[in-house]
């Protein structure tokens, strides 16, 4: 009789296929035999806790999904998950707040895996003040706020270019993670109609090394570069899913205008 595929084996196979890796490639990277990996995926062998973690590491699977795989294999989760405002994460939260404050007068914010806002400095909150208050009720999603017709979209000068950039970004994240919430967000953003005069995404208006966000603001036009920072080697699910996005001025005029915006 055929062995039923175990939940852990099925999940591992799904992740391997999502990463576009063959059994032979993954077996070499994880230091196991391709035969044993095949047995695990088809249910003929039960993976050990150590093997699941080896394969997760080789596939670059997020910590949240590693816990899910361990549970499917009958093992306890390996990684804690605590709220950002919990006492256990006081040191991490304080570090993030120091980074946000140190980046002023330039905008910076912290988002979770679904691009929901967790923390923001004063200049970032000033930019959020440009959007319709209805988008700031409850959980604030940074990508939604950026592209929604009542959000920052009308103020983005190179909107077609930024829309294409954001859609590539969320599409890749949804594909890499298999997260249904990100897939739903991607579909929602794709449903927003182009604004009048938006045009089509064409030649970049920024530098040749990065896409610039060009934004109308109360203090004048801003040209902004974006960088992302993540925690190194996190052992907590929440921390592994946080990213700090810092915006930098792309020219002297923007630097001066951001200083005025922060002061206001």
Automatic annotation (TrEMBL):
Organism: Pseudomarimonas salicorniae
CDD domains the record matches: HTH_XRE
Database matches in SMART domains: HTH_XRE
Designated name of the protein: Helix-turn-helix transcriptional regulator
Domain (HTH cro/C1-type): residue spans on this chain: 12-66
PANTHER family: BLL4672 PROTEIN-RELATED (PTHR35010), BLL5781 PROTEIN (PTHR35010:SF4)
Pfam families named among the record's database cross-references: HTH_31 (PF13560), MLTR_LBD (PF17765)
Domain of life of the native organism: Bacteria
